[in-house]
Structure to design on (163 residues):
């Protein structure tokens, strides 16, 4: 039985291999664009869920404490400790959410008695570690400010460095 020589098919095999390499590279590029869009979509979704939760809490609290001078809302603002710090935005949002839930005990307290509770909370939460996505982060409370029944807290988030 005679086997045909591959010389006749050399150009076709080369063209098919180039086409196959192009398909693989194209899939990789498409996957990277898809991943980038999905990350952006997840960040937007998290922001919308957070805004929805905050608005629902605000409505519930405003119904509860209509004419009283109490803390009605807690706002946590996070910033990186260094401009080159590798703290992801999603990790910061999760840390802020955890911190807000821990500071939820201050909500409903009188604004005239906040100094006692805020000092205790500051001492307990300063230099606290949080684990997000198998990475440890350390927070430092910079400022706590009470304005118009809203407690504003500024923190810095930095990766935790083990000694």
């Amino acid at each position: 039985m005679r086997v045909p020589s591959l010389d006749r098919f050399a150009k076709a095999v080369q063209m098919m291999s180039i086409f196959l390499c192009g398909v693989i590279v194209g899939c990789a590029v498409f996957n990277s664009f898809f991943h980038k869009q999905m990350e952006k979509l997840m960040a937007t979704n998290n922001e919308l869920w957070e805004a929805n939760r905050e608005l629902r809490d605000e409505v519930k609290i405003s119904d509860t404490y209509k004419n009283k001078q109490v803390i009605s809302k807690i706002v946590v603002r996070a910033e990186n400790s260094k401009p080159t710090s590798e703290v992801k935005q999603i990790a910061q949002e999760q840390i802020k959410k955890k911190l807000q839930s821990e500071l939820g005990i201050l909500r409903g307290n009188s604004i005239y008695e906040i100094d006692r509770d805020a000092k205790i909370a500051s001492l307990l939460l300063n230099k606290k570690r949080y684990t997000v996505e198998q990475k440890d982060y350390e927070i430092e409370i910079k400022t706590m400010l009470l304005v118009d029944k809203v407690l504003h807290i500024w923190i810095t988030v930095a990766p935790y460095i083990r000694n």
